[in-house]
């Protein structure tokens, strides 16, 4: 759908320069999704893998974030193999609703109530990033924290439109449950893509 060089705004790799590869297509249906224009894959022409890899190598930051849409709708083995051969670290943002493919240096799992992640993906996650839209999401987040590996980083990220309401609750929750950390969508505050 689009490619752009920016700063990873969210989660563990927040603040790092990275080339974003946004793949079109998603049927998870989060009503608060901030990239709804990605949902219909047919609106976005295909780009050859070699072109994407060549574009990614042009920038000084040697990391890519593969996102979407839901990137795991596609088998990502060929793309990530070539990126890694080109010396680029591979990070993914996924809901986990489709089978895991690809070779990854960092897997961010952001589970959704609207289409549950596949049970086999949680142990592979390096980072669990739960979006907090209302206060019932804390209990739901804990259910996923049980499924990830012991060294998986745990983040609570406010849903953007509910930030003013949810941030105070998240602050309170993290102070009382310090295994969790706050993730903010810092790119939105910085006005960058
Ligand atoms: C647009 S999604 C694409 C990748 C994948 N479909 C997923 O949901 O993980 C990228 C990240 O943005 C988060 N996100 C999407 N809409 C958001 C919103 N309104 N507020 C906060 N985070 C949001 C998702 O949870 C995910 O972690
Ligand atoms: N700067 C920046 N950081 C991001 N982290 C995750 C994003 C995404 O949409 O997947 C995103 C994005 O769209 N922009
Ligand atoms: S899974 Fe990701 S891309 Fe799909 S609707 Fe939800 S936030 Fe948007
Ligand atoms: Mg985004």
From TrEMBL:
Domain Radical SAM core: 13-193
Binding site residues for [4Fe-4S] cluster: 26, 30, 33
InterPro entries: 7-CO-7-deazaguanine_synth-like, Aldolase_TIM, rSAM, rSAM_sf
Catalytic activity, EC: 4.3.99.3
UniProt-listed SUPFAM superfamilies: Radical SAM enzymes (SSF102114)
Keyword Iron: yes
Cofactor note: Binds 1 [4Fe-4S] cluster. The cluster is coordinated with 3 cysteines and an exchangeable S-adenosyl-L-methionine.
Any Pfam family the entry gives: Radical_SAM
Root EC class: lyase
Cofactor: [4Fe-4S] cluster; Mg(2+); S-adenosyl-L-methionine
Record-level GO BP terms: tRNA queuosine(34) biosynthetic process
Pathway: Purine metabolism; 7-cyano-7-deazaguanine biosynthesis
UniProt entry keywords in alphabetical sequence: 4Fe-4S, Iron, Iron-sulfur, Lyase, Magnesium, Metal-binding, Queuosine biosynthesis, S-adenosyl-L-methionine
Residues that coordinate or bind S-adenosyl-L-methionine: 32-34, 69, 110-112
Family: Belongs to the radical SAM superfamily. 7-carboxy-7-deazaguanine synthase family.
Protein name: 7-carboxy-7-deazaguanine synthase
Organism: Pedobacter cryophilus
Taxonomic lineage of the native organism: Bacteria, Pseudomonadati, Bacteroidota, Sphingobacteriia, Sphingobacteriales
Gene that produces this protein: queE
